[in-house]
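Sync notes, pocket subgroup
Present: LS, DG
LS reminded everyone that the earlier model was apo-only. Rerun requested with erythose-4-phosphate included. Inputs:
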Amino acid sequence: MKIFLDTANLEEIRKGVEWGIVDGVTTNPTLIAREKVPFKERIKEICDLVKGPVSAEVTALDWRGMVKEARELAKLDEHVVIKIPLTPDGIRAIKVLSSEGIRTNATLVFSPMQAVLAAKAGATYVSPFIGRVDDVSSDGLKMLEEIVVIFGNYSFEAEIIAASIRHPMHVLEAALMGVDIVTMPFSVLEKLFKHPLTDIGIERFTKDWERYKETMGR
Ligand code: E4P
């Protein structure tokens, strides 16, 4: 399972990269706006840090505009992946870009059949939004599971990115399904480390070691 960070914050990305467990990054217009920095410069900075796939989202809503933006963004760095929303224009743009060898990430996917359309158009990645489906009292993990089954049925090449992750249980369930990638906020990645028995264990080992050193020093 590959881990992507869902953030445009350099500090968070740097920490994750230093731990050696971050394979890529996903951004979106909201995450970029939160950082209050020039968009393209930030995408380049993230690429230099992570040296893996970095999703940068287009903001045009028509396919010609999307393709134009995508071609510009793709020039920034070899690691840039173009995030395209799942609309009829988005699907058309994905088809054009994939024929040019530009990698795409179909975003704002909320149903299995939307995921199928993206895979058929040649998307490199497809991002179902788990948390946002849960937010409207539906079952995001069930949607994800259905996508995993369908992609297996037809051996679609697109990789699935479980997105809109809210907590460690989303990550666990996605991993049990064998999802290719999970993109998560830094706060969720931090939570994956946590277990009270680890903290208690370290405390006990440290105390016992101190006592041992005292005894041996006598
Ligand atoms: C995915 O690539 C999106 O950036 C992200 O996962 C959206 O998550 P949210 O629903 O927490 O905004």
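DG: The chain is about 55% helix and 15% strand.
LS: The domain at 2-193 is CATH 3.20.20.70 (TIM Barrel).
Action: DG to write up.
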